[in-house]
Amino acid sequence: MNILLVLLRLIHIVGAFAWVGLGGAMSFYIIPATVAAGETGFRYMKSLFTQPGFAMIFPSVSGITTLAGILLYLVGDAASHFSQTGNIVLGIGAISGLAAAIHGGAVLGRTSRTVGQTVVQLGSALSDADKTQLNELTLKLLTQSRHSLILMVVALVCMGSARYL
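The chain above was modelled as a monomer; its predicted structure follows.
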C-alpha cells in the first residue's frame, strides 16, 4: 500500500474524528449549558472566545480534514476499492463533508465571530437588552452548529460504510 495514501487516510480520519467530536461537544453540551447558565454562561463564553486557540481549532481541523479528503480523492483510486454502490455512498459523504466545511466556514464561522465579538464588547455588566441580544445570537449559533453537525455525521456515516456496500 502506498505510504502517501496511508498518511492521508490517517490524517483524514483523525481530523474527522476531532471535527465531529468538537462539533458534538459544542452542539450538545457547551452552547446549551452556556445558554442555561445565563449571565454566568456569557462570562464563560467570553473566556472561551478570548482563548487564542479556540478561534482557530474549528477552521484548522475542518481545513486539514477537507484538504486530506480532496487529496485522497485525487491520489487514490476509489473505483478499484469500492463497488458502484460504495462509490455512490462515498460521493454522498464527500458532498456532505464539503457542505459541512463550507457551512462551517461561511455561516457558522460568521455567527461564532459575531457572538465572540459581542460577548467581548459587552464586558461584564449586562443589561436586559444585552442579555436578550446574546440569547438570540447564542441560539442562532446553536442552530447553525447543529446543522453543521448533521452534515458532518452524514459524511462520517457514508464514508465509513462505503467500503461495505
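The chain has a mean pLDDT of 85.
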